[in-house]
Amino acid sequence: MGKHHHHEVSGKNLFITIILNIIITISQIVGGIFSGSLALLSDAMHNFSDVLALFIAYFANRLAMQPNSKNRTFGYKRAEILAALFNASVLIGIAIFLIVEAFHKFYHPEAINSLWVIALGIVSIVLNSVSVLLVKEDAHDNINIKAAYLHLLTDVMTSVAVVLGGVLMYYFNIFWIDPLISVLIALYLIWASFSLLKESSAILMQFTPKEIDIEKVVALIKEEQTIAGVHHIHIWQLDDHRIHFEAHLDFKDNLSLSKSNSVLAVLEQKLHNNFDIEHTTLQCEYNRDDDKNIIV
Q: What is the C-alpha to C-alpha distance for residues 229 and 223, in angstroms, rounded to an integer?
């Protein structure tokens, strides 16, 4: 019930941030056109990507709450991972585009109405700061919300850079600062998105969670007196919370089903307590002639 409430809160706050970012995007596009500022238009594009990212995050958040079914035994649990991957990819794509545009601007500098840049940059800082506060709490334990949070946090930082650039242009007429800020925004976007791209890709590729040492898992299982060995191990994440584990267990003796069930119950509890493994599938074997490698 607590988890369900958590998703409700996340969804509501995400919806509010979508509205705020639509306001920012429209105002910055208009301001960028009238002022001639690439940095302001870059920030507007970044905010527009946020609108898309937040909408996808909101939709994925709703979708992940759908129950499992016969056709979808895992439900839509990975919808949020796909959303995080997409959002990170979009950010990197936008960053590359901004770098290309900035270089064009370096070679063809133009006078810029810096008052527009300063005023709309401040509006963006205020509204994005509100958005960051709305989703901050849920970003700690949800990769999808974390992706949205990263978008918003970079927006605050980029808007600060835009305002500083506007001030320098207003007082010193240093117009080349505009494309320079665009490049800095773009490089930060790439840096901030790469770890998220890596993390979401690792989950989709079913890599072993980085915090789990398989050798330690094997050692824990072998502590059970009735177990001779363990092989054919798979450990993966369904989403950013649920870790799944499966393995074949070699029993020393030909135990009854009821006795082997007791052993499995103990192992499941130990695996959960020590490695936060939520779902286990253990195949009991006795004198079976199969591949005994830990990883098959």
A: 10
With residue 131 as reference, give the H or E element that holds it: helix 114-139
Bridge partners of 284?
Answer: 249
Look at residues 200, 10, 182 and name the one whose alpha carbon lies nearest to residue 89: 200
The segments of the chain whose pLDDT lies below 50 read 1-9
pLDDT tens, position by position, 64-76: 788 888 888 888 8
The structure's pTM equals: 0.73
205-241: pLDDT as tens digits: 999 999 999 999 999 999 999 999 999 999 999 887 7
Residues in Cβ contact with 150 at an 8 Å cutoff, skipping those fewer than 6 apart: 91, 192, 193, 196
Q: Residue written as tokens 């305002």? A: 163
Nearest to 52 by CA among 78, 90, 79, 85: 90
Instruction: Give the CATH class of 2-204.
Output: mainly alpha
Domain ranges in the chain? 2-204, 214-285
Token digits for 72?
């979808």
Bridge-based pairing of strands 243-251 and 277-285 is parallel
Q: Which CATH architecture has domain 214-285?
A: 2-Layer Sandwich (3.30)
Centroid of chain to Cα 165: 30
Return d(Cα 252, Cα 282) in angstroms, integer.
Answer: 16
What is the identity of the amino acid at 19? I
CB atoms within 10 A of CB 13: 20
**Cα 124–chain centre separation:** 23
For 81, half-sphere exposure in the C-beta direction (CA atoms, 13 angstrom radius) is: 18
Cα distances from 266 to residues 34, 214, 224, 262, 270, in angstroms, run: 69, 18, 9, 6, 6
147-164 pLDDT tens trace: 778 778 878 887 888 898
